[in-house]
Amino acid sequence: MKELAKQYDPSQVEDRIYQFWLDGGYFHTKADPDKKPYTIVMPPPNVTGQLHMGHAVDNTMQDILIRTKRMQGYAALWVPGTDHASIATEAKVVEAMRAEGLTKEMVGRDGFLERAWAWKTKYGNRIVSQLKKLGSSCDWERERFTMDEGCSEAVKEVFVRLYDKGLIYRGNRMVNWCPHCNTSISDAEVEYEEKDGSFWHLLYPVKETGEMLELATTRPETMLGDTAVAINGEDPRYAHLHGCHVVLPLLNKEIPIVCDEHADMTKGTGVVKITPAHDPNDFEVGLRHDLPIVRVFTYDGHMTGAADKAAADALFAAGKNTVNEPHVLDCGKYAGMTALEARKAILADLKEGGFLKETEPLKHEVGTCYRCHSTIEPMISKQWFVKMEPLAKPAIESVEKGEIKFVPERFTKNYMNWMKNTRDWCISRQLWWGHQIPAWYCDNCGETVVAKSAPCTCPKCGGAKLTQDPDTLDTWFSSALWPFSTLGWPNEDSADLKYFYPTNTLVTGYDIIGFWVSRMIFSGLAYTGKAPFNTVCIHGIVRDSQGRKMSKSLGNGIDPLEVIAQYGADALRFMLVDGSTPGNDMRYIEKKVEAARNFANKLWNATRFVLMNLPEDFEPGLPCEELLDMSDKWVLTKLNQVAGAMTDNLEHYEMGLAAAKINSFIWDVYCDWFIEIAKPRLNSGDAQQADTARRVLVYVLDKALKLLHPFMPFITEELYQALPGSAETIMTQAWPTFDAAHNWAAEEEAFEKVMDYIKAVRTMRTEMNVHPAKKTSMIIETADAAPFQNAQVYLAKFAFATDVTFTEKYEGSTDGMVQVSTHAARGFIPMMELIDREKELARLNKEKAKAEKEMAMFGNQLNNPKFVERAPAALVEEIRNKFAKSQDKLANIEQSIKALG
Questions:
Q1: How far apart, in whole angstroms, are the C-alpha atoms of residue 144 and residue 81?
Q2: What angle do CA 619, 620, 623 make, to 5 degrees?
Q3: How far apart are CA 62 and CA 68, in angstroms?
Q4: How many alpha carbons lie under 13 Å from residue 166 in its C-beta half-sphere?
Q5: Sign of CA dihedral 119, 125, 130, 136
Q6: What positions belong to coiled-coil segments (predicted)?
Q7: 616-674 pLDDT, tens per residue?
Q8: pTM of the entire structure?
Q9: What are the sequence ranges of the domains in the chain?
């Protein structure tokens, strides 16, 4: 029998246990026709990432599900992997090169990619090793990377398929441009922050009438790109200006006044400036009125100059411009300035020229890059797009039909809002690290060729000089394929794809429903014909103890690895799920981690006690029912109930409730009650009684460890292996389930009557400061004496009774008696010489107030028609029983008060 250390030290257990699991290959899963598959694909953390609390809660929840399903006999596969994270990784490599005095352009694309792969090799496994510290039981033999050969093949297959169907196109469209990352980003990657700004009221002179048109803007630097001013055609204030023009201040350029619904008569002056190259709404106005598109910003956030204009003019002269190709302005004295520098200079010149009427302060939502938090510039740019409407429709229908459900259900609305309002997805990024777009352009005729491999000649003109598009695909393009690209797609004959796909559960945060969840759903339906998973389990974010979001700026981030080093991975895992509810944010509270660590210590010490009381020749297994006493049947029934309840909780993704149940069972039922109850039998000198107690102790502990294992895998493995008769690992043992043969409801109820009475006596003695050595006789008045008669050994040990008399109705003297009351009994204990009457009355009145409060609470629930009609019948019946018990208890207390006079 394995001997346990006196104290539990996670640092001496966790790494050793994890290596044991790896060496045993227990995480690896194969297709098994005799088993039902259960599959989770890990949301791939960025290859640049380090473990944070978001990763910790996400992967703990996945691990709980996968360990449970593994024990329930499923072929449970958890596919791990990492994301290439185009923007973040490229930024890391560029930063490292800058320290060497190098740029991307200096080393060239091939040289840069060589460095990027080297960086990935050196640092990319950091997040993987950290996930292992957490206890993640992924099938590491199947670890994937979004740029590995299989995923890259899937990306090219999808791009070509969509292009051939006309669902991918290239064009000049309005995009969200990050001048710091120097790339376009999708709508989902724009984060809005409230910032202080201004409305600058400008005056544009009307050429035909000489009057001044007042309009307001938050971005006066864009005025150099204005190609029109809009008024509403129904606005009577400006009816006389239809067909007129304004003269653009500073440039002295004539631009038209157009009538368009975009000009809202109810807002401001009802006049808006139109800058088609730098505002999404203005771009649409420009298309409706065939306005020129004039770009005034460079892609690195400066005002355009002569060189920029010359390059654009050359493109037009060569006939290589495409639809909506923007012209470029030489901004003259403002050329080369940043947008903010130009804003100051332009405002100064407008003021000097009399074109700035007033400045109005305001707070407004400003789009920022989700990566670097720089202000996003709406820019007209030539990019690749996915047509979303035909892809979104089946994805909406799939959720409406219930093929995919969100837990909690309220997040279905978030998904639907996103999908129903989605715009075409900009998928090209001006980066080198990532999947290079599989499109080539003929240098001779300009023909575009999209193919999975490089073409030798142009299919249009036969030219042999073709250049691949330098852009890469949005990182989310490849991660959208993750549930099936990791299982062998596009090889539809893949054994893994046939067996493990569709997957079952996606665990993720609510913040990426639009980024990722929606794209996986439409991708799975479009390319495999099947929804990629049936359930999306949403969790909240982990906030600090004050409820604030963790951030570098606040300095309130908690490093999970530091928590693990101090308290152990099991304690962190348990803290993250205990009491949590799906979809809701949680707070990191150190006292909760300490409580989880204390729970682990309590379990360790309880197991040591059990093992120390086992003989060398001990053989585990429950004895026959005839040998079980009332306390044995009580604890086995409680175990049975918690196994059934936890199974149901986990089926409904109520991990917080399941964790709370096993915590309560181990701490309150097993450790605080059953071990203490078993001690008299262990030391009774009756060999058969002692053997029965040992067998029940070991049996219950074995099952409790298995129920706790998905939540606290390390300590449960260590303790399980110490139990006599244990198998090689707890991971592959059967999950405990409800067993009707071990459900003794009558004995449970009977023993709990005894427990309630013992608790009442102990509470009374504590309140009266009665020393444990002081024992006394007692009279128990009860209509059901059998449970108390069968439990006299426990009454002696835990209620400090020297002898007990039973009666259905006590009519003797109450002088010198202290009385305790439960719903099932009243106890009369001769202890008044130790206390005074007034103190006892005060105690009883306190108990009465508590009982009245309980009865009122249950009564209010039962008097609420909505509760009675809508709550599950079992819950309503439970509340009725509690109400009846509280009535009985109150009646007993009132009798005791009356007896004292």
A1: 4
A2: 100
A3: 10
A4: 2
A5: positive
A6: 832-896
A7: 999 999 999 999 999 999 999 999 999 999 999 999 999 999 999 999 999 999 999 99
A8: 0.85
A9: 31-160+475-539, 165-174+381-390+417-473, 176-378, 572-743, 748-835, 838-900
